[in-house]
Design brief:
The complex is a heterodimer of chains A (about 220) and B (about 210). Chain A is mainly α and about 220 residues long. Chain A has eight helices and no strands. Classes of the chains: A mainly alpha (about 220), B mainly alpha (about 210).
Chain lengths: ~220, ~210
C-alpha cells in the first residue's frame, strides 16, 4: 500500500497526449468517410448486384464480423508485405479500420435500405427518374435517416477499437500513452489520464455526430 | 531458425485456442454475474443507486477495452494484489462484459409492459420475487439474440489480452510468426480459428432474431 499517485508529469505531457488524440481523430475521420462510402456501395451491391457479387459481399461481411480486428490488422500489416505490398503503419491502420468498418456499415446500411418502403422506388421510377437517381436521391437519404443512430454507435465503437493500432506503432493516443509510461514509470496514472481522454473523445464525438446528423438529415435523429 | 511444418503451426495454434475458449467462458460467466448486480442497481428505483450504475456502464462503453486491461494490469498491483496476465485478463473482460450485458438486459426489462410489474405486485410478490419470477425471465428471453451477439464480441475481444501478455491464440501466433516469418499463413489460420468459433454463434443469434421478429 506504499504507493502514492503522482500526476506531476502531466504538465509536460499534455502536448504529446494532444498529438496522439489528434492522430486518433484523423484515423476515425478517414475511417468514417471511407468505411461508410464502401458500406453504401456494398449494401447496394448486395441487393442489386449480380449473383457472384452478392455472394462475395456476403462472405466478406461474415469473415470481417467473425474475426478480431487485431488479427485483421496483423494480417494486413505483416501479411501484405509478403505479397510485395509494403504499407506504412498509418496507411495499414487506415486500411484495416476502413475494411472492418465497411463490413459493419454494409449490414447497417442494408437494414436501412430494407426499411424504405418499396412504393418509394416505384413512385420515383414512375416519375421518370433513372435507377441510379432513385437510389441516390430517394432511397438512400431515407435509409440514412433510419440508420443514423446505429451508424453513430458504430463510429464510436470503431474509435475505441482504434486503440489497438498502437500495436503496429501508429503514433496515436494509446501509443503515446505507452511511450509516456515507459518514460515516467507512472503506468497507472498515465493510462488513467489517457482513458479519461478517450472517454471525453467518445462523448464529444457522439455529441458532434448527433448534432451534425440533426443538421444534415433533418429533425428526429436522436 | 526453428523449422515448423504446417501441422506444427496448426497444432500449436489449436492448443493456444483452448485458452481463448476458456477465457471467453470465464469472462462471460463472470460478466453475467457482475452484470446482474449492475442491472439490479440500474433498474432500482433509488435515485442514488441508478446514476452509479449508469455511470459504470457509460465508463466501460465509452473507453477502449485495451485501456481497461492496462488499468487492471497496472492498477491492481498498487492495491497490493499480485497479478498475472491471466487474472488481469479475466477481471478486465469480466467488468467489460458486465457493463454490456447489464445494458442489454436493461433494454429487455424496459421493453416489458408496466402491467407485468403491477400484476406481480397485485399477486402479493415483493420486489425481489417480482424480479426473479416475472421480470427477469422475460427480459432474458427477449434479449437472447443480443446476448449471444455480445458473446461473439467477447470472444473477439479476448485477442486484446495478448497485448498484456496473456498466452492465448494471438500471442502464440505472434511467437510462431516471429519464428517462421509466414504471417500470411499464421494470421490466416488464426482468423480461421476465430471464425470457426464465432460464426455458428452469429448464425444462432441471427436465427433467434428472426424467430423473435415473427
Amino acid at each position: 500500500m506504499g504507493y502514492s499517485l503522482d500526476f506531476g508529469w502531466l504538465a509536460g505531457a499534455a502536448g504529446v497526449i494532444a498529438r496522439g488524440a489528434a492522430m486518433t481523430l484523423l484515423l476515425i475521420a478517414v475511417t468514417t468517410f471511407a468505411g461508410t462510402f464502401l458500406g453504401i456501395l456494398g449494401a447496394a451491391g448486395k441487393r442489386n448486384g449480380p449473383k457472384p457479387l452478392q455472394l462475395a459481399i456476403g462472405v466478406y461481411v461474415e469473415v470481417m464480423r467473425n474475426t478480431p480486428f487485431l488479427v485483421q490488422l496483423f494480417f494486413i500489416f505483416f501479411g501484405l508485405p509478403s505479397l510485395g505490398v509494403r504499407l506504412d503503419p498509418i496507411l495499414a491502420a487506415m486500411l484495416a479500420m476502413t475494411l472492418n468498418m465497411a463490413a459493419y456499415t454494409i449490414e447497417i446500411v442494408g437494414a436501412g435500405l430494407d426499411a424504405v418502403p418499396r412504393g418509394q422506388t416505384e413512385a420515383a421510377l414512375a416519375l421518370g427518374l433513372r435507377p441510379r437517381q432513385v437510389f441516390v436521391k430517394i432511397v438512400l437519404p431515407q435509409a440514412l435517416k433510419v440508420i443514423y443512430p446505429a451508424l453513430t454507435s458504430q463510429i464510436v465503437i470503431m474509435m475505441l477499437e482504434s486503440a489497438v493500432v498502437s500495436q503496429i506503432a501508429v503514433r496515436e493516443l494509446t501509443y503515446e500513452a505507452d511511450m509516456l509510461q515507459a518514460r515516467t514509470f507512472r503506468a497507472f496514472e498515465t493510462y488513467f489520464v489517457v482513458t479519461m481522454v478517450y472517454l471525453g473523445l467518445s462523448m464529444g464525438l457522439r455529441r458532434l455526430l448527433v448534432v451534425g446528423g440533426r443538421r444534415a438529415l433533418g429533425a428526429g435523429v436522436s | 531458425m526453428i523449422e515448423f511444418t504446417f501441422w506444427d503451426i496448426v497444432r500449436n495454434l489449436l492448443l493456444a485456442a483452448r485458452w481463448t475458449v476458456l477465457l471467453s467462458l470465464a469472462a462471460f460467466i463472470g460478466g453475467a454475474l457482475v452484470g446482474l448486480v449492475v442491472l439490479f442497481f440500474r433498474i432500482a428505483k433509488n435515485k442514488w443507486v441508478k446514476p452509479i450504475a449508469s455511470g459504470y456502464i457509460a465508463l466501460f462503453q465509452g473507453t477502449p477495452l485495451l485501456m481497461q486491461l492496462f488499468l487492471m494490469f497496472f492498477g491492481l498491483p498498487m492495491l497490493g494484489l499480485r497479478i498475472e496476465p491471466w487474472t488481469a485478463a479475466v477481471l478486465g473482460l469480466t467488468f467489460f462484459a458486465s457493463a454490456y450485458l447489464a445494458e442489454i438486459w436493461r433494454s429487455g426489462v424496459d421493453a416489458l409492459p408496466r402491467g407485468q410489474w403491477d400484476a406481480g405486485a397485485s399477486l402479493g410478490l415483493h420486489y425481489l420475487q417480482e424480479l426473479r419470477l416475472i421480470i427477469l425471465p422475460q427480459a432474458f428471453a427477449i434479449t437472447r439474440a443480443p446476448t449471444v451477439g455480445f458473446l461473439v464480441q467477447l470472444i473477439k475481444s479476448t485477442a486484446l489480452t495478448s497485448i498484456i501478455g496473456f498466452e492465448e491464440l494471438v500471442r502464440t501466433s505472434n511467437a510462431i510468426n516471429n519464428a517462421t516469418f509466414e504471417p500470411f499463413k499464421v494470421y490466416g489460420l488464426v482468423a480461421l480459428i476465430f471464425f470457426v468459433m464465432c460464426f455458428p454463434l452469429t448464425q444462432y443469434a441471427r436465427r433467434l432474431e428472426r424467430t423473435a421478429a415473427r
